[in-house]
Amino acid sequence: MRSIAFADFLIGLGILFVLEGLMFAASPNWMRKAMKSAIATPDNILRVVGIGSAVAGLVLIWVMRRPI
User: Fold this and answer.
1) Which residues cross the membrane (predicted)?
2) Does the pTM of the predicted model rise above 0.85?
């Protein structure tokens, strides 16, 4: 039996794949430029953006899952 948290994780992962796939399908040239830009960006900037994104995601999950 799967836990609710694991099911939510798989749903979130599925949504991530859908959005990423749509971005590549809709504009492959733009995605190629975005990847080249990410390669040229220094590690510390990518790290800060990644941590900020993770924190924003956790806050969003917390806000949506807390009891009203």
Assistant:
1) 7-25, 45-64
2) no
